[in-house]
Fold these 2 entries.
Entry 1:
Amino acid sequence: MKSAAILISGRGSNMRSLVEANLPVSIRRVVSNRPGAGGLAWAAERGIETTVIDHTRHPDRSSFDAALALELDGAGVDLVLLAGFMRVLTAPFVDRFRGRLINIHPSLLPAFPGLHTHRQALDAGVRVHGCTVHFVTPTLDGGPIIAQAAVPVLPDDTEDTLAARVLAQEHVIYPLSVRLVAEGKVTLGADGRISTRAGTSATARLVVPWE
Ligand code: GRF
């Protein structure tokens, strides 16, 4: 069975969805860059080892990333799952965990990379928005896409209502994607593209957020 660490910065609802999905993955650690991250207590209550690596105590990104890599290597994890982890990781860190580092982003990439994605979507006037799970590469929010889910944007949506609709789908596609990677059905190929195991058939799930 593969092992994983989940990296968070805040409330950790995506972390919860991964833990509660009963994936064929042993969750060895939850690591936060913020001591006050709400998700830490939830994980600890469930007997998952938690670690804080406070980024404010590191002089630069390289120093923080080195401490993080040491922690993850020490825990001996195969997969590193970013779940609302709000730090940009350096290229050496990303390269070290190539093909094992996965992120969830609250937009239909390549639209709306970066922060405030729901505000960006509302400002752009798109009628379809959503979320993306992707392998992390040194290009911010630019790695090969594993799965996406779409939701409609309604005329009276606010950032909060739209975020809630997208978040519900994040909780569906993140566990689904991690399962595919953990089972070896989806890998990051040497050419930098998604590679699927021979015989893997294409499936589409229509995600309907309401009736
Ligand atoms: C999620 O929308 C995630 O995609 C984004 O930040 C939010 C974190 O939420 N990067 P949570 O901490 O997983 O509840």
Note: Residues 8, 10-14, 83-84, 104-106, 167, 170 surround 5-O-phosphono-beta-D-ribofuranosylamine (CB under 6 Å).
Entry 2:
Amino acid sequence: MPPSPECIALPAPAKVNLTLDVLARRPDGYHELETIMHQVDLCDFVEVSLGGEGVRVEVDHPGVPGGEANLAWQAARALMEAAGVTQGVRVSIAKRIPVAAGLAGGSTDAAAVLKGLNRLLGCDFDLPRLCAIGATIGSDVPFCIAGGTALARGRGERLEPLATRLTLHLVLVTPPVQVSTREVYAHLQLDAIRRRPDRGAVARGLATGDLAAVCAGMENVLEPVTTALCPQVAEIAERLRREGALRAMMSGSGPTVMGVFAEAGEAQRACAIMKQYCHAAFAVKSWGEDGGLACLKPS
Ligand code: C5P
């Protein structure tokens, strides 16, 4: 067996929600979801190494806590607890994904720590076990571990992988406002939901390569709730449509809005225009079989 490495560097891709439906409020305070999640090649970079004392997390972003409040810190502790080991761990995060923006930035860092430490410590936990540990840290963490495209149910932790023949070209635009997921869910009134996604149409469109079907089925029931808290969501969606987006919709609990474009060139052109209006605009594509190598150029 090759010796275990002492340091692992992993890209941690963001996710978008192509559909998000809330079916019920649960007795545990969470909500029963049906959501199609899809990884894109906007990445944080996470380096995990062994050594020193305790768990230390460093982030190159002033708005992100480095200690126990960071999901990456919680992930390191949870994995070591499951493995029954105590070890000094150092995590260094280069943040590229906007924070508290509906893109699972914190969850994907936690997922990278779980995967990295699993290898560094030679734990050999399989994917379901890693996902179960991830679910104790956050509802989006299991998807960030499994990756690709999936229908998520329950709190978001029950995953069914979806086949896709499409490479999506998206422009993500994040207004300079952080939104609390908890607050958005607290404001949601289930009996006020008017439009729900057609997840069957989106899943079929992804499987058959029918982008129009994907766009037609996309909907996020949290979008009106976040728009009431942050009106820029509607403004950004309107601007994306004006720049040629086939569909513009909020991701997760927001406030990031994604525009769907037919081609990479169109997305890049629209992104350049959106940047004049909102600094945090990114032209991205599906985190694909090429391993999303484009993301390995931090900017
Ligand atoms: O699981 P996570 O910590 O990411 O969730 C953050 C908050 O979002 C929860 O405390 C809860 O208020 C809300 N939430 C929910 N139902 C879900 C996922 C999240 O109500 N399925």
Note: DSSP finds ten helices and eleven strands in the chain.
